[in-house]
Write a structure and sequence with these properties.
Number of domains: 2
Structural class: alpha/beta
Shape: globular
Oligomer: single chain
CATH class of the largest domain: Alpha Beta
């Protein structure tokens, strides 16, 4: 009976306090990082039991609301993620630091910190606790790259590529047997910049000198006793001890995802809107879906992205647009289509801000040239202003397989991209001319969009990759920060205060039925309504025809830039 009375009392208290009891400590499990976005496929959602984890943006927004909620007193996080991009860790760190700055308690705990990134994130918390038999795998940054320059010819494949220019190393893994000097130079600087950011963050969080942290990284990994003696952790404790200390005798625990749901702001329909359009994964012509790459995966179709931008601009409540870019690039024609639509949005009076996620390189940087402002995290991998194209010649492989191949052609270049033979000199000349045109177009748009001279752009371009911090020093990025900073920039450009309440609305907007029901045309609903009214009044407006370009040169970044 006593238990039932207590349950009833708790339900009454929860109702009284709108689902969040006073003295609540929020709990979050970061054994994996929040995803950038969620699948919109009804079948995939059903397979997951319709259990949606918080995205990165939702996580940061929930922590922001919690920092201003008097019912919430603290945050308790199990911090054990691995292979997470540095920029993602930085967005989470910034949210935790803001939560701390509001006077709330923060505790990070792990059975073991499996890598640099997990401890870097944990160092943002006021208290860092480690299980007694655990360790901290703080060992620094390394890059391992496999080259297929000998392997592919051995199996009968000959890579036949051209690029612009020497730092565009996406094709090096196919054509080389080791690092070229430009490839080595760019990679080493990228790693050094990442290490500088890791060391600076840990030093600030743990109240240590950067030189001391650098020495600890060089001497890592560290067992629990060593970590405690070195002040990397505050105490050694088991889970039950950690949770009891964080919650206390009177407090209560609540998952951050539950708090996010119970604390959703009201009255959003009356607020001005900031539209968000996501450019994630490889960029290609067509609609969102699986896109080519190494390996293939979910990507952004230029048809979907450009239609979403048009929908946002046509919405009279939308005051600004944020393009959230987390893409290594892809087809040049697709990136150019998105760039053009962002330009058109600005011309229509809608400010455009780009928020760069983990990666916004090559074609992912190209789309940003249509924005008023570019915001990137210090650890964002960006730049790679360049282009490549080519093919694999499989004549040797066919011979080994005793596969006879004959080609009949009417025109000299009809089989230009065929895999049976290398490019002829005439075909090579056409390929090189196309790459020169694309590179010239790319760099000229960077010069115009960033207000830089062509000579300065060429120095930072040539296919070279930069961290967000290095890119900002070279004028490729305006402001350092995550989505929250980009949102503030968008508000200011729209004439609103940085802290003004707004409704952050994702485009394209689609309900469950819309995912099964095709649209009537490529025009946004508001535009179709205006067109119908004009047709009634004037007896006939022609509908615009939307066509997607396909194929052509690629502006793509290769590699895995997650922090172990």
């Amino acid at each position: 009976m006593t238990d039932k009375v207590e349950q009833l009392r708790r339900q009454v208290e929860l109702a009284r306090h709108r689902g969040v009891l006073p003295g609540t400590v929020l709990e979050v499990d970061w054994t994996s990082a929040p995803p950038e976005s969620l699948s919109q496929s009804p079948l995939q959602l059903a397979a997951a039991g319709f259990q949606k984890p918080l995205t990165l943006r939702q996580t940061v927004a929930a922590l922001d609301r919690a920092s201003r909620d008097d019912r919430v007193t603290g945050l308790l996080a199990r911090v054990q993620p691995t292979l997470v991009p540095l920029a993602v860790l930085q967005e989470l760190r910034d949210a935790v630091l803001a939560f701390r700055a509001a006077g709330k308690a923060t505790t990070a705990w792990a059975e073991a910190f499996p890598g640099n990134g997990s401890f870097y994130l944990a160092s943002a918390f006021e208290r860092v606790l480690l299980q007694p038999a655990g360790s901290i795998n703080l060992v620094g940054v390394a890059a391992t790259t496999s080259f297929l320059g000998e392997t592919l010819p051995w199996i009968g494949l000959e890579p036949d590529f051209s690029r612009r220019h020497e730092y565009k190393n996406a094709v090096d893994i196919f054509t080389q047997t080791g690092f070229t000097e430009p490839h080595r130079q760019a990679t080493e600087r990228l790693m050094e910049s990442q290490l500088e950011q890791l060391v600076a963050g840990i030093a600030e969080g743990r109240g240590m000198a950067a030189e001391r942290v650098r020495a600890l990284v060089d001497d890592g990994p560290h067992e629990a006793d060593e970590a405690l003696a070195a002040n990397l952790v505050d105490a050694l404790a088991f889970r039950d001890e950690v949770y009891h200390q964080a919650k206390g005798d009177e407090g209560s625990l609540l998952y951050l995802a539950r708090f996010a749901k119970r604390s959703r702001p009201k009255g959003l329909k009356k607020l001005p809107r900031v539209a968000v359009v996501s450019i994630t994964g490889a960029v290609a012509p067509g609609r969102n879906g699986v896109k080519p790459g190494l390996p293939p995966g979910p990507g952004t179709g230029s048809d979907t992205a450009t239609a979403a931008i048009r929908d946002a601009v046509a919405d009279p409540k939308v005051k600004a647009l944020v393009l959230r870019v987390d893409s290594p690039g892809g087809a040049v024609v697709a990136a150019e289509a998105i760039w053009r639509e962002a330009q058109q949005a600005r011309a229509a009076g809608t400010p455009v801000v780009v928020s760069m996620g983990a990666v916004a390189a090559s074609g992912g940087y190209y789309v940003a040239m249509g924005a008023d402002r570019i915001v990137a995290s210090p650890g964002t991998v960006t730049g790679s202003i360049g282009v490549f194209s080519g093919k694999f010649v499989a004549a040797g492989l066919r011979q080994r397989l005793h596969l006879a191949t004959e080609v009949l052609r009417v025109n000299p270049n009809a089989d230009m991209y065929g895999s049976h033979a290398p490019f002829t000199p005439a075909q090579r000349a056409k390929l090189d001319a196309a790459l020169d045109r694309v590179y010239e177009s790319f760099t000229s748009r960077v010069a115009e969009g960033r207000g830089l001279s062509p000579a300065v752009v060429d120095e930072v371009a040539r296919g070279r990759v930069w961290t967000g911090a290095d890119a900002a020093e070279r004028g490729l990025v305006d402001v350092l920060g995550g989505f929250a900073v980009a949102l503030q920039e968008a508000k200011v450009l729209a004439g609103l205060a940085p802290d003004a309440p707004v409704s952050v609305t994702t485009f394209p907007k689609a309900g469950p039925l819309d995912r099964f029901r095709p649209k009537e045309s490529s025009e946004p609903p508001a535009a179709r309504l205006l067109a119908w009214a004009a047709w009634v009044m004037l007896c006939g407006l022609d509908h615009l025809e939307h066509r997607a370009a396909a194929g052509g040169p690629q502006s793509t970044l290769s590699g895995d830039w997650r922090i172990p």
